[in-house]
User: Fold these one by one.
Assistant:
Number 1:
Amino acid sequence: MEGQPSPATFELSELQTGGQYKLTTARVLDHEVETSCNVLVICSDGGPDPLTTRVNISVSILDLNDNTAQFQQSRYQLNVPENKPPDFVVHQV
Ligand SMILES: [Ca+2]
């Protein structure tokens, strides 16, 4: 198995029923770090002159709302000059 960005992203293991395999994650995936991975699975039989086939698996890493919004500062102290019209920008956060 070959994968991007590293071979340790996924693991391929045989099911107990035999002849079938499951693809599982080998580490925690983070959509903010990588949005997709490509996995190349190569299968060969046990013949004396092995025959092989390959398949590309494209895996999208779905985004979850797992990051809390953050302010740059924990507290803001601002001054506003008097007599400014409506829509006067006080500050941007
Ligand atoms: Ca996220």
Number 2:
Amino acid sequence: MQADKILKINHDICLKCGGCIAAYPDIFEFDENQKVLIKKKAQVNPEDLPKVKEICPVAAIIDN
Ligand code: SF4
């Protein structure tokens, strides 16, 4: 599934730690202001969603 259809970032609590980008560089990236974005056209297997969301220490990766 297209990742940006099912995931989003809660920028109010994101620490900009980069953990999600380090773990899943195919899905997440920083923009020029170190704001985490979900890459356009990134794909994620719905079965992997809990694992992907768990990487964030503050639960800023949430369902879209
Ligand atoms: S792991 Fe969480 S807190 Fe860290 S950059 Fe990603 S979304 Fe933000």
